[in-house]
TrEMBL record, chain A:
Species for this entry: Dicentrarchus labrax
Family: Belongs to the peptidase C13 family.
Gene behind this protein: pigk
Family annotation (InterPro entries): GPI_transamidase (IPR028361), Peptidase_C13 (IPR001096)
Active site: 168, 210 (nucleophile)
Known pathway: Glycolipid biosynthesis; glycosylphosphatidylinositol-anchor biosynthesis
Protein name: GPI-anchor transamidase
TrEMBL record, chain B:
Pathway(s) served: Glycolipid biosynthesis; glycosylphosphatidylinositol-anchor biosynthesis
UniProtKB keywords: Disulfide bond, Endoplasmic reticulum, Glycoprotein, GPI-anchor biosynthesis, Membrane, Transmembrane, Transmembrane helix
Functional summary from the UniProt entry: Component of the glycosylphosphatidylinositol-anchor (GPI-anchor) transamidase (GPI-T) complex that catalyzes the formation of the linkage between a proprotein and a GPI-anchor and participates in GPI anchored protein biosynthesis. Binds GPI-anchor.
Taxonomic classification: Eukaryota, Metazoa, Chordata, Craniata, Vertebrata
GO CC, any one term: GPI-anchor transamidase complex
Quaternary assembly: Heteropentamer. Part of the GPI-anchor transamidase complex, consisting of PIGK, PIGT, PIGS, PIGU and GAA1. Interacts with PIGK.
Keyword Endoplasmic reticulum recorded: yes
PANTHER family hit by this protein: GLYCOSYLPHOSPHATIDYLINOSITOL ANCHOR ATTACHMENT 1 PROTEIN
Intracellular or extracellular location(s): Endoplasmic reticulum membrane
Organism whose genome encodes this protein: Dicentrarchus labrax
Name listed for the protein in its UniProt record: GPI-anchor transamidase component GPAA1
Length: 367, 604
């Protein structure tokens, strides 16, 4: 009898321990998995993505700058950022230019392989609206109240923003529209304003102009990463001369950037270190540069899709979750107040008593 | 005290100036000439540097296929031209309309001041035909012009055929951002002048023309084509226009770049580009090219149909196809491709061509420095007080007396010289009828010989001037006159050089030494001879011979003299027909100036 009870007791203890450990282990596992997914989800700290893509030059022979911007636009859209979150500024209209032998197209590869204009391009700032003032207003958010939403950068402190600039530049400035310039100091100050107003979480700045590296020299706000197509004193060169159209179709750096981005899909795990390797000197002739000292995270842990795409974390599960069981909930506490009719009747009673007491003659004073 | 207000210093400066007068003059002159020759070291070589961003490189794909059809059209044109005995207007209108252009015609007529013996015309009447290819999508604000002249006889048929072939090809393209005007002008320059005046609503030369019914936008660039053979070996680019104007060199560089791309030989001034300007032969070659260009510019004639566009700030050049004895021949399809490429590039132009000012001013200032130095020297001499007389006349009266006398003695030669100039300008044309009645010469010869006669008559003036003036000229008188003349020359040559540098340079080269050395005290016969040699008329005579030498077609004296006479008649005609400024400049300004120096030489 003692043996049977001890046996029972042992079995009971064993079962208890086993179930307990199993339970804890399972919950620990669950907790651990939860933590991993959540960690991944919150590792970058951003919840939405924005892109500001600017082409600053006009005239037909600057076709390649418009093609540059449209290529980045195309990649960014393909990777998930919607038009409502893209501010596209093109200083000139190449697709409908009278000199374009293939109207309504902008090609990025010679022999007309890839038309980056497509049929769903939404240009937010076009032609002469692309000015330094408008660009800075978009960045800092100081737009007149009548500005439509499509022309605003409505980012918050959890937005990752991609800013891409292309055109003609020099040491410390970028030329807008043949008539004005933006300096690197102004740009750095604009980014500081954005930081003060908590308008971004992290910002990636890419510039494809001559001497582009001079534009990010003056940055001083945190969480900025910058890439440029050439160093100070170097020219960024054009690529893809097309004889049928008669102009250069792309710049070298953006051409190779586009090639690199074509291989990225929303689930890619490629990180920024790969982006820094795009277009080495042998292909680009100029030396691309980058700056990461203001960025808090390690570039190796930053995914391309953190900036170029708008990725929602989706976890696929094979479990079935039963949603038909009623979930017992406590009834919601509702504030109680007496019914309306009661209040009305109460006040009528009070008035009647008042007039009964003091006589009807006072009625005419009221009405 | 300042440098110029301190009397001691001033005196020192002045004495320095008077001592070094002649050496400074000589040095300035030599430096000016040397600098000019140094220009030939890297002369008007066509480089591949483009200053206009929109022109870029020759990155277009030329696909013009229809060279043979162009030649057939040319032959048709030639047949119809023979039948019509001039411009086959109806056939041209029909053909251009068949190619989808908007066709218009313009009638013009002009009576020349005297018959033109080179081209054998006197009363000119003609029609221009032009077709406008409208840009498919662009607003009609800008235009390009392609023109081919319709010349009598067998020349330029291929040019018109190619023009029509290109018109058909261009019509099928959609990338034109400017209207293209295809113009066939009759009587070459006269027709072109009528068309341009009609297009721009100006009337500077008194020609009669019917207003243009159709118009494109403002013209950005123009090319004139001359092609008289089915195959060519090289293309010659002609840049010099009216009054020595040149188009923007980007146009020339573009043409050269396309020639290199397509593989056609390109010449300028009829000479090939050479790269060995270090060697002696290379240097002399480039000097020859430069001298040719200078002479052509100085003459002020338009050397191609394009020459008249430059006045309206339209960059234009003439392209001549040359068939010589080289082995490698180029066919019309290739020429068509070259023109297609050029027009494609001109299509990309977004702004008008910039104005390129080459600074030859330094050379001219060096040459003119010595005139200024002379003037200063004279002023100094005049400023020294005259020796007192021993009479009791007060200084004031004497000063006033000499002052008035001085002014009169200067004013008279001035007025008479200019009147002679006016005579030289007006008399030849006015009295040609009378001359023809009196002497057995044709009208052209009458005009030219009257001009030479008036010129030579001016040489006899000093004797007559002095007979008019009572009393004798003083020692001071000729100094004042020389001061005035020297300053006048400096200003005149400076202004001329601004408009037409080559003309200013050649005149400066010959007239400045005259200004320097002439005084009444040099040996009369020798200096009179030198003065005549260096006068504008003789300079022209020598230039004619020199020009023929440079073109490797030397002439004998007889032929040279006849050529000289025809040059004078052409110069006068150019002035009346197209507004060339060389003839009035020489007759009304340079010749009187030279006469002043002649007066000084014979001052008594």
């Amino acid at each position: 009898m003692i043996l049977s009870t001890t046996l029972e007791f042992c079995i009971f203890i064993y079962l208890l321990i086993f179930s307990f450990s199993y339970f804890t282990l399972h919950s620990c596992c669950l907790l651990y998995l939860c933590f991993d997914n959540a960690g991944q989800f919150f590792s970058s700290g951003h919840t939405n993505n924005w892109a500001v893509l600017v082409c600053t030059s006009r005239f037909w022979f600057n076709y390649r700058h418009v093609a540059n911007t449209l290529s980045v636009y195309r990649s960014v859209k393909r990777l998930g950022i919607p038009d409502s979150h893209i501010v596209l500024m093109l200083a000139d209209d190449m697709a409908c230019n009278h000199r374009n032998p293939k109207p309504a197209t902008v090609f990025s590869h010679k022999n007309m392989e890839l038309n980056v204009y497509g049929d769903d391009v939404e240009v937010d700032y076009r032609g002469y609206e692309v000015t330094v003032e408008n660009f800075l207003r978009v960045l800092t958010g100081r737009l007149p109240p009548s500005t439509p939403r499509s022309k605003r950068l409505l980012s918050d402190d959890r937005s990752n923003i991609l800013i891409y600039l292309t055109g003609h530049g020099g040491n410390g400035f970028l030329k807008f529209q043949d008539s004005e310039e933006i300096s690197n100091v102004e740009l750095a100050d604009a980014f500081e304003q954005m930081w003060q107003k908590r308008r971004y979480n992290e910002l990636l700045f890419i510039i494809d102009t001559c001497q582009g590296a001079s534009m990010y020299e003056r940055f001083y706000s945190p969480n900025l990463m910058a890439l440029a197509s050439s160093q100070v004193g170097e020219d960024s060169l054009s690529h893809q001369p097309d004889l049928a159209i008669g102009v250069h179709l792309m710049d070298r750096y953006t051409f190779y950037l586009l090639e690199f981005l074509e291989d990225i899909h929303p689930a890619s795990k490629t990180n920024m270190n790969d982006l820094f390797k795009v277009c080495p000197k042998s292909q680009c002739v100029s030396t691309p540069g980058h700056r990461t000292d203001l960025f808090l995270r390690d570039p190796g842990s930053v995914l391309i899709t953190d900036f170029f795409g708008s990725v929602r974390k989706v976890e696929i599960t094979m479990e079935t979750i039963n949603l038909t069981d009623p979930i017992k909930q406590k009834p919601k506490q509702k504030d109680w107040h007496p019914p309306d009719g009661f209040i009305l009747g109460l006040w009528t009673l009070i008035l009647l008593v008042f007039f009964k007491l003091y006589g009807m003659k006072h009625l005419k004073h009221i009405f | 005290m300042g440098l110029l207000s301190d009397p001691n210093r001033r005196r020192a400066l002045i004495s320095l100036l008077t001592r070094l007068n002649s050496p400074i003059c000589v040095v300035c002159y030599m430096a000016g000439v040397a600098w000019f020759m140094g220009l030939a070291f890297e002369p008007f070589t066509l480089r591949t540097y483009m200053s206009e961003n929109a022109m870029g490189s020759t990155m277009v794909e030329e696909r013009f296929p229809a060279g043979e059809r162009a030649l057939t059209t040319g032959r048709e044109f030639s047949a119809h031209k023979k039948k019509a005995g001039g411009m086959p207007v109806d056939w041209l209108v029909k053909t251009m309309q068949a190619r989808g252009l908007e066709v218009f015609t313009q009638r013009f007529s002009r009576k020349l001041p005297f018959p033109d013996e080179n081209k054998e015309r006197y009363m000119v009447k003609g029609t221009n035909v032009y077709g406008i290819l409208r840009a498919p999508r662009a607003p009609r604000t800008e235009a390009l012009v392609l023109s081919a002249p319709c010349t009598p006889g067998d020349s330029n048929n291929q040019a018109v055929g190619l023009l029509l072939g290109l018109a058909q090809y261009f019509r099928n393209q959609i990338y034109w951002a400017k209207d293209i005007i295809f113009l066939v002008n009759e009587h070459d320059l006269i027709g072109m002048q009528a068309w341009l005046e009609g297009y721009h609503h100006t009337n500077t030369t008194g020609m009669d023309w019917s207003p243009l019914q159709g118009r494109g936008g403002s013209i950005q660039a123009a090319l004139s084509l001359e092609l008289s053979s089915d195959v060519i070996t090289s293309m010659d680019l002609v840049l010099e226009g009216l009054n020595g104007q040149l188009p923007n060199l980007d146009l020339a560089n573009l043409f050269y770049a396309f020639c290199q791309k397509i593989g056609v030989l390109c010449t300028i001034q009829g000479k090939l580009q050479r790269n060995d300007w270090d060697s002696v032969s290379g240097y002399s070659h480039s000097v020859q090219t430069m001298m040719l260009m200078v002479m052509k510019q100085a003459s002020g004639r338009p050397w191609g149909d394009h020459g008249l566009f430059l006045r309206y700030h339209i960059e234009a050049a003439s392209i001549k196809g040359i068939n010589s004895f080289r082995q490698y021949k180029t066919d019309v399809t290739t020429i068509g491709r070259l023109l297609e490429g050029m027009y494609r590039k001109l299509n990309n132009l977004l702004e008008p061509f910039g104005l390129l000012l080459t600074d030859y001013m330094l050379i001219l200032t060096l040459l003119l420095h010595l005139t200024v130095v002379q003037a200063l020297d004279l002023w100094v001499q005049l400023a020294t007080p005259p020796p007192r007389t021993e009479d009791g006349i007060t200084d004031k009266e004497q000063v006033r007396h000499t002052y008035y006398f001085r002014v009169l003695s200067v004013l008279t030669p001035l007025v008479i010289s200019h009147l002679t100039g006016v005579a030289l300008y007006t008399l030849p044309i006015q009295f040609q009828e009378m001359a023809v009645e009196q002497f057995p010469v044709s009208e052209t010869e009458a005009v030219v010989l009257t001009a030479i006669g008036v010129y030579t008559a001016g040489l006899a003036l000093p004797h007559n001037t002095h007979r008019l003036l009572s009393g004798e000229g003083t020692e001071q008188g000729w100094r004042v006159l020389k001061l005035v003349a020297v300053l006048y020359l400096a200003v005149l040559l400076g202004c001329t050089a601004l408009i037409n540098f080559s003309l200013g340079f050649i005149l400066a080269l010959t007239l400045v030494p005259v200004a320097a050395f002439v005084t009444p005290h040099v040996p009369k016969v020798l200096s009179a001879f030198i003065l005549v040699i260096l006068s504008p008329a003789c300079t022209l005579l020598f230039s004619v011979f020199f020009f023929q030498e440079l073109q490797e077609l030397p002439v004998s004296f007889q032929e040279g003299w006849l050529l000289y006479l025809s040059v004078i008649s052409q110069g006068i005609l150019d002035h009346f027909l197209y507004g060339s400024l060389v003839y009035p400049l020489i007759a009304l300004l340079v010749y009187p100036c030279w006469l002043l120096f002649w007066n000084i030489l014979f001052w008594k």
